[in-house]
Amino acid sequence: MNSKKQTLTAWLCLLPAIIFLGAFLVYPMIDVFIYSFEEGYNFASQSYFGIGGYNYSYVLHDPYFIQALKNTFIIVLITVPLSTGIALIISLALSSIDKLRELFQTIFFLPYVTNTLAVGLVFMILFQKTAYTDGMVNLLIRFFGGESVDFIDGPYSAKMFVMCFYTIWVVLPFKILILTSNLASVDPIYYKAAKIDATPKFRIFFKITLPMISPMVFYLVITGFIGAFKAYSDEVALFGTDLNAAGMNTIVGYIYDMLYGNSGGYPSYASAAAIILFAIVFTITIINLLVSEKTVYYQ
Amino acid sequence: MSSNTDGKTGSVPHVNSEYKLIEQRATAANVFGQIIRYLLLAFWALIVLFPFYWMILTSFKSYSSYNSEYVPKLFVTSPTFQNYVDAFTEVSLGRYLLNTFVFTVVTTAIMLVIVVLSAFAFSRLEFKGKNILFALFLSLMMIPNELVIITNYVTITNMNLRNSMPGLVLPSVISVFYIYLLKENFEQIPDELYKAAKVDGTSDMRYLWRVMIPIAKPTLITITILKVIECWNSYVWPRLITDDPNFFLVSNGIQEIRENGFGRENIPAMMAAVVAISVPLMVLFLVFRKKIMAGVARGGTKG
Amino acid sequence: MRLFSFMKKSGKAAAFMAAVLMTMSVLPLTACHGSRESSGFEIPEAFDETSKYEITFWAKNDTNKTQTRIYEKAIADFEKLYPNIDVSLRLYTDYGKIYNDVITNISTNTTPNVCITYPDHIATYLTGSDTVVPLDELLTDSRYGLSGDELKYDAPSKDEIIPEFLSEGIIGDHYYAIPYMRSTEACYVNKTYVEKLGYEMPEVLSWDFVWEVSEKATEKNEDGTFKLNGQKVLIPFIYKSTDNMMISLLKQEGAEYSDSFGNNWLFEDVTRENLMEITSHAKTGAFSTFKISGYPANFLNAGQCIFAVDSTAGATWMGTNAPLCDIAKDKIVDFETAVYPIPQFVDREGLQISDNKASRLAPEEKKFAMMSQGPSICIFNKKDPQEVLASWLFAQYMLTNDVQIAYAETEGYVPVTSKAQDSPEYQDYLSRAGEDNTTYYDVKIEATKLLLENQKYTFITSVFNGSASLRDAAGSLIENVTKSVRRKTEVDAAYIDKLYEDTKSLYHLDQVSAAGTGKTEFGELPAESKWLVRLLITTWLLIGIYIFSNKILK
After folding, report:
1. What predicted TM-score, i.e. pTM, was given to this entire model?
2. Helix axis angle, B12-59 to A63-95, nearest 10°
3. Residue A37 CB coordination number (10 Å)
4. What is the distance between the alpha carbons of residues A21 and A12, in angstroms, rounded to a whole number?
5. What is the maximum span of chain A, computed from C-alpha positions, in angstroms?
6. Strand C237-239 to strand C370-373: parallel, antiparallel, or no bridges (unpaired)?
7. Which B-chain residues 223-252 have CB contacts (< 8 A) with chain A?
């Protein structure tokens, strides 16, 4: 009766999705997996040594990959906790003021809708020190009595600093938005009860607010980790496409370099690196799945 | 209501003034806290806004006056439109904008069709293997884009679709997350409506079009907004498969200008280009900000 | 977040499915990525003028509109002669991009027909089978070869191509490329400043002279501006291409660099001494590179540089009256430009004019030498031999006088055929230096003459699969040393040792060999990788234990 017709309609409806997903998601997944085991396959020679783990070995021994790995981990470990913390502080502040709140919210969300390459360029100019000018930021540093530093072309720590700063600047809008709406949805009954008990502000925060929003905070931390591991365009925005020259390459940048860079078309190495990245991201996702049951308070 | 009686309630005036003191201190602390909060927020607002201010400011400085500023100035002495003229004539910036516009519209449109149909099938229709298929779909969400881009690159090159609009659009259309989002929304539509429609003899498609879509409008708007932002700012895919400037999108167009074009030296003109490509989304944002922010929040919390 | 709980329930089923799918599909699909069918190329009996052929031509053009027009005119003229051939032009701003694109397209069989390239790149294209067409037979074919009988245009004969340039297209035992344009490096000197400092311009620039003048120029006034130009910025000596710099130094000092088997002598003491010398000048701010500071032309024209070394093909950007300019007009300073060969250790007769520690270590005699560079053309193999022949016809057309002279005149290029070089039209062009500041721009013509006069002193480097990487490595040594000095890092023997190690591994120079791309033996995993693997493994063990213990507790 209807079920046959429904089945037909359903499959027809799903057909476009299946085609696109199959062609551009499933097939590539398998294909990349295969590439990663075809040792040393490259576009020019179109041949490979054999089937085995050579590609993974190559990637794990590659100094470029090591540098990218280091950079990515540093970015992840610094920006995720910091950005979540700062977002929390700002959201709390936003929730407890009433005048100008909308204005601030609009301003804080602005970076989300702008192109990271465009704004990154501006950051680069502000932080860069050339032969002609010290740049805006160095001006401020000198004003406070410090020595000017070239953040874009100078020592590694300066470059990492500006990288983390920019990354935090970019991810903050989303986090602030999520946290503010989450804070707003906490039932005010709890606060009223606490006020009656004359609970000090600190205890209110730690015993009520934080547990209430902890699922969201945890979620932001997890998605923050995953997003930070995939960092790439922000780096390009600041340092240009040749990230290896700047020593600021990331894992994703390494994958693209292997695919289309001056080393000339090695989808085998790119795939091996991509699978390694996937392993990292997948691990984090699984951890999230498991932990989210235990330590999070539900309303 | 305390008159100054002595004896048993001799402490009342004390309590009164003590209470007043505590209250004063509390309000003082409150005000102090408020000031700190406002300062903090204003500080971050400044950090957020300053790059934009700088971007716009520099785009109006003339090339020579910009270069002569050893100490960068925070204002412009003789503003000029020359940079915008340069930006649009040196490279076909207008073309990049047009490309991106077409890309965004086409990709979002196709995506909407696919997402609506799929979410409808999963939420409303019954068929064998529905749960397993959906589970499979969900598991696909874990696949990072960076992984599949490798093969998509080869596929598109094979089909000779590099430097073409279809090549840009096709792999960018899909997203399992939006299907999930919409399915959830559709599932909240009560069964009774469906049964009623069936009694009236409405076909499934009509039901979808007439009833489900209007009810799910907020989510659809959310999805559209998120996709538009994603498309407008898309960088890696266009960079990988286009090298013909006629097909550049704004992101890789800007990158090209910065590395190989006039952006290497002419910073004000570079800023003008940057402002030009940021304006469309910013205007969109300022006009629809409430909807956009609500939509992103909704999308974010569901994940 | 509700998503995650849903995923947990169905996630396990899905994960299992996915794993099954993947393992099943790996096996049959491994045959998928393989080499294409290879088919050699044989010259057809006659060119088929009745069928239509579409040729793609990929060329480089660095925002020089005149050059674009010349390409377009060449195509139009060619298409008039051969109406059945349709040529479509694609322009790139960078040779590297052409290289990347060709590599990608090899695997999908969508390579162009003709492209502008460098022999270094061709060496990598050749690792595939039958990608680039060997030109030996085509060159000598009586009908369609150089100045063959059946050609519809006046092409040069083999003798009429400068032999040194032609031989640069030999890789291994075969010709794979024909030269297109040639240039060399020149030193563009701000003569006014040199004389202001109290020096006289010598016949030949020696390294000693250049270093001495550059050091003198670093003197500053009390307010921090430079005495020489009164500006805040002055970098007396800027070298555009540091790879050329390193290689030229070695060549001039009589030291070895590389051979066609892929062996290199880059990391010897000679290089070390050169690097120490460069460091001392980078420290005082007398020397910098393009990658660190910017285009030499921009500094030169703004009166902020004295010795700017760049290709003769960049001559139209150099000097007070340069027709092409990146900087603002009011920044340009008035001065006299002199065009010299790059700094040397000996003069053309072999007499020593400067001395350095490095050359005392080198085994061979010192030489008067400068790099020969410039694009070449190669054609790609296709299924239809007629299409390949059509590509060859077009490629050869680029060697005709019309195209050669027109293109050479756009920059400090030299035509690669003596036919063009000796033609009255070209000779006339050379004689009119200074008539205007566009076609007859004097700096450009002087740069061209520089190459013509010094043709026999030019050299090229060996080509092998990986020679491009070696070249990059050579340049990076100088870049790193200069960068470090600017960042106040101490550059001493230990630093250079480490730099050598890092560079060797970064550019995979231990793997480079003409014996083919064999698998390399890797040593131990570096520490970071070990940690990564350990981290992943321990995490999964913990996850496993956690799930397991959960199951037990239930």
Report:
1. 0.84
2. 130
3. 21
4. 15
5. 83
6. unpaired
7. 229, 232-233, 235-236, 240, 250-251
The per-residue DSSP string of C172-215 comes to: TTEE--EE-EEEEEEEEEEHHHHHHTT----SS-BHHHHHHHHH
Please report, for chain C, the start and end positions of each structural domain, with discontinuous segments joined by +.
2-37+542-553, 53-183+374-422, 185-371+458-513
* A70 to C1: CB separation less than 8 angstroms, yes or no: no
Q: Which residues of B touch A32 (CB under 8 A)?
A: 147-148, 150-151
Query: Does the beta carbon of B260 lie under 8 angstroms from any beta carbon of chain C?
Result: yes
Beta bridge mates, B140? none
From chain B, pick out residues whose CB is under 8 angstroms from the CB of A17. 114-115, 117-118, 137, 174, 179
Phi, psi of C60 (to 5 degrees): -105, 140
Neighbours of A201 (CB within 10 A): 12
Distance CA C203, CA A52 (A): 62
Instruction: Tell me if C53-183+374-422 shares its fold with C185-371+458-513.
Output: yes
pLDDT tens digits, one per residue of B123-177: 888 888 888 888 888 888 888 888 888 889 888 888 888 888 999 999 989 888 8
A105 near A180, Cβ under 8 Å?
A: yes
For residue B176, the SS3 value is helix
**In this predicted model, what pLDDT tens digit does every residue of A186-212 receive, in sequence order?**
777 877 887 777 777 777 777 777 888
User: Residue A298, CB half-sphere, CA atoms under 13 Å: how many?
Assistant: 5
Tokens read off for B72: 């960068």
Q: Provide the ipTM.
A: 0.86
Domain C185-371+458-513: CATH architecture, name and number where available: 3-Layer(aba) Sandwich (3.40)
Question: C327 — contact with chain B (CB < 8 Å)?
Answer: yes
CA distance B274 to chain A (A): 5
Mean pLDDT, all residues of chain C: 86
Answer yes or no: do C327 and B135 touch at CB < 8 A. Answer: no
| Token pair for C506 | 């970064």
In this prediction, the residues of chain C whose per-residue pLDDT falls under 50 are 1, 10, 27-31, 513-516
The 3-class SS string of B36-95 reads: HHHHHHHHHHHHHHHHHHHHHHHHCCCHHHHHCCCCCCCCCCCCCCHHHHHHHHHCCHHH
The per-residue pLDDT of chain A, averaged, comes to 85
Q: Please tell me the distance from the alpha carbon of residue B20 to that of residue B5, in angstroms, as a whole number.
A: 19
Top-tier CATH class for C53-183+374-422: alpha beta
Query: Residues of A with CB below 8 A from B286's CB?
Result: 106
Q: Are strands C307-311 and C181-190 parallel, antiparallel or unpaired?
A: antiparallel
What is the torsion angle, in degrees rounded to the nearest 10, for the CA atoms of residue C39, residue C43, residue C48 and residue C51? Answer: 20
Residue A89 to residue A112: CA distance in whole angstroms:
19
